[in-house]
Fold each of these.
Amino acid sequence: MLIQTLSRLVGAAIAAAPDARAGAGIDDLIQSIFGPVADVLSAVVFVEVPLPGGLSAPVIVIWLVIAACVFTTYFRLINLRGFLHGYRVIRGDYAEPNGPGEVSHFQALTSAVSGTVGLGNIAGVAVAITVGGPGATFWMIVAGLLGMSTKFVECTLGVMYRRQNADGSVSGGPMYYLQQGIAANHPKLAGLGKSLAVFYAACIVGGAAGSGALFQANQTYAQVFAVTGGAEGPMAGKGWLFGIGLAILTGIVVVGGISRIGRVTARLVPAMAAIYLLAGVAVLLVNAERIPAAIGAILHGAFSGEAAYGGMLGALIVGFRRAAFSNEAGLGSSAIAHSTVRTREPLTEGFVALWEPFIDTVVICTLTALIIIVSGQYLHSGLDGVALTSGAFASVFPWFPYVLTGVVFLFAYSTMITWGYYGTKAVGFLTGESVLAMNLFKVLFLAMTVVGCSMQLGSIVGIADAMLLLMSIPNLIGVYLLMPVVKRELDSYLARLRSGEIRPVGRNTE
């Protein structure tokens, strides 16, 4: 049934483009249809403002940078002082097996991390270094550290204003705290809150298609294409066929909801992260003598560049943009997964969420960047995206691209199943939990994996970045309005923690 549905969608796309050049393959045809869409979206979302020195910066990136700085300051470096407590919550010291919700703190974290630890960590970092130079790595790390505070606020709000459904499932995330949170705390702005919630839900549907399906599928196929012989190999021109297979595997988990996703990611995320980290450390050990020079290149590029002001600003913009794509701080998407946690204390999940950007950006993205820089591949290879990262690994271990292919698949698969869930919950919000509408979205989401395997990287990055970053506009407006609510909740929680009213109850990560 799924294959038949996907085949009909592909057929409809072909029929909708009668002017495509004769003899063009399905992959070329899909690119000709969706490529212009990416160009339009990028032009709208990445509007730039002029800066001193004749330079400019995307408004959306400035928006995210300011928000991360505000939350870090307002909550007095919660990204640092709450880090250890977050670890204790994750390992189960404050578990509530009988609390309202669907998954444990550990499963909520792995579900959210599976949505962020994806090909943005492999391909996205390569794009950042290609465009912004090694200095972009430094600003990615800074963005990750600041983004921890943003995640803290978003995910606390996600639990505070989540909805318990009649069947025992939970619906939460920005759609709910924008509508219900703003209405409860700012009654005169209730209409604004509802409008922001609807706009956000529409954005996340697009973000699920762009980042969750298109980008992940594209770069997975790119790696398979490369290791099987490229243009002369058996996968040449077969992106659409590969996409159908990937869609079927994704659909098997997506239809099971957050409980199944939580069980899968609780095992998949630690395993895939361990494989990648071990492989990355091995590459760095072989190139140990080059690591100091790589760190020097990162720091030099971050603060100087060829023209000090322009180089620094360019690296900062690219670094923050790619960090936003990687860890999604400010976008609110992770709050959808975190809101399903079993707890009566919303703040506990805020502390758990601190670890998400740290794992995603500070650890995994930094490792990827160092691998690329010590290899020197970005200077002369002409590669981009996942191919550049693969080339960096291959410069040390010629056989490693085959191992990386498996890692790429795991990263992409974990991200796709989580974003399929995010998009489904957004559709549920928009349609009053219509089962038909949510099932139709799942079919559309899986169809986008076919499209993603048939498009060029430039178009994919344009669509993915645009749809993701657009989500930050309604989300951060709401978070600004509600951050005093979180501040009061935080003060109460810390006071009860100090008094012993809140105390460890044991460990439970299942």
Amino acid sequence: MDATHLLADRFRGYFPVVIDLETAGFNAKTDALLEMAAVLLQMDSAGWLTPCETLHFHIEPFAGASLDPAALAFNQIDPYNPLRGAVSEGEALQLLFKQVKKALKAAHCQRAVIVAHNAAFDQGFITAMTARTGLPHTPFHPFVTFDTAAMSGLVLGQTVLAKACYAAGLPFDPAQAHSALYDAERTALLFCELVNRWKRLGGWPIIQKAEPLTAH
């Protein structure tokens, strides 16, 4: 089977996009989104999932955004440092949507799905940013997500990203953590390992059993 069709069949037409964000607080409607990374995935002809392309943006705080000093101390981001090369929320989303839609078409998928560690957080910020910029036709499903924290809890018995990576046999450098780029790349490797592990265990592709015969 063609590898692109394998990916389309694997998640019933959904295309997984791994997202990680760094923000200036926890409120998606009021707090600034400062950094965003996205990892696109690919599936080979044998059905194995791997990271493919990474997108990374430093983002300018939107007008009137709240900046929680505790959040900035935690992620070590200076929102107004000119060396960040930050772009507007609209510019970042336009570039992200363009690449995701291109990947959707190539993989014969119908809709993108956010994959993230504690996905509700990232989805909330992406949804709020999309509403602020007024961009139409988001490629992302409005409520379906793949949460690697929940998946790791089930498969590995761990819900913290670093501990889940260690349990999966993946390297994790705490010194690089809380960078959207690093965390997105680690999350992508973790998601691929969880999906591929299920395949190695014989859980996919699913073999459809014949319907039992019934007496007439």
Amino acid sequence: MNSNLHTLMNSQVGSGKTAELVSLLHISAKFRMWEEGRVSRSELAQVLNMLLFDGILQRVPTGKAYTQDVVARSGKVFLDHGALRTVRWFGIGALPPGETALTRILKPLGYRLNGHYPLDKLKMTGRSYAHADDAENISQFFVSELHPERFSRGFQEAVTRVLGNSVDPLTPAASTLLNELERDGSLDMQQAAALLPVLLSCFERQHAAPSLADYEILLAESAEMAWIATEGNAFNHATDRVPDVHATADQQREMGRPIKPSVEISGSGRVRQTAFRADSVQRQFAVKGGMVERTVPGSFYEFISRDRFTDDAGNEQLDLNFDTGNAQGIFKMTANS
């Protein structure tokens, strides 16, 4: 076991959780080489992904049950990507608008833009980011931006009210460490351990509980924006890369789990995706005179199969692309049932 990965995870979640995640998740063979006490950008990215995946398991009981099945048959989850939603809107408090709130973290960690996907039906734009050091084995990020200017005036005003009190969790000290990581490609263990919890806090909701009235305004025009109102920048979903998504879907369906009725297939035919319906969560909403609790869609768990192909230069590689149609179909998993 790479001692840098172990030490860094242990500093955040303790030895028991570290052992659990190491036994559950695929870890690239490239991590068998490391510099003791000097954490590379790819090592920090790997630990961040593993801990974000653990967050999904805590919030998504259906995904947790699936992973318990994987463990029972001595298998591994291959974390293909995590998906996040942002809002490209100015006047949202201290948080930078749109994907900038996250790419300012991803780029120092070694991530590079890998694809651009107009999600016009949802009035959003998606972009994928792959890791420069080991794109096939380190989980990608799929970051989407919602565009309020494409919606009604009332919707825009509700967005401003909901997000206007957003805080920026990225501290000046953390920004300095990210700058050094981008420059040098690594940090010492003490620096990496100090930076990690700040990075994790960036993948949470940064604004206060929305009012119920504003939530209903947003929900009437965009299930995606309504989801952001309650969940913020948390992982919308995490994805297991499986050999045969059709077989996986059939198996989960036979077990009675709430999996999508169809598999989304990319235009190339090489990328196939399906997912569980989002698990419900209880969230607080502000109303006149206090707060009320409502059941809303939370995060979910996805499955993907990717084929290998030969590119124009004659190089054989895994198809790490996404597909606009696939993405828009998968996003429906958080629509109110």
Amino acid sequence: MVRSDARENRARILAAARQAFAENGDTSMNQIAQRAGVGPGTLYRNYPSREALILDIYRDEVDLLIGSVSDLLATLTPPEALRRWTTELVDAMRKKHALGAALSPDAHKSITEQTYGPVIAAITELLDAGKRDGSIRADAEPGDFLQLTGALWRAAPDRAQPMLALILDGLAVHPLR
């Protein structure tokens, strides 16, 4: 069992690192330790490398994103929940790739493999809700949706929402014309 002070230190390190990397992707580990109010030894005990820290930040963001599906579906229509969720996914993908220089190819592959299944499950839940209420086509596939939206993080920020609208329009159930 992890002690409460160790959990608090880890949470402070993650919060400080998330903020520091958002401001400057080249932030040093020592700067992160200072921001978190912990010593370098505490930082390196929790995160032996910069890569381990970045991977944990990304894993944490994906976990939060996946955990948000039920709340979104409780308050929004399935298409609107899918739009909001996908916008957050694209933001997380941009952050991951902005820090990509700090990750080895093996780390990129590992985090993609670790998060693929849970992300597909979240997309499935969103699409299934729309299929049940008739707002999303019955033939919509989670893997296809993820592949299409994968291009959004590479798009210019002002183009991501119009492109997402095109993807979502393609999911809508339309009467035959």
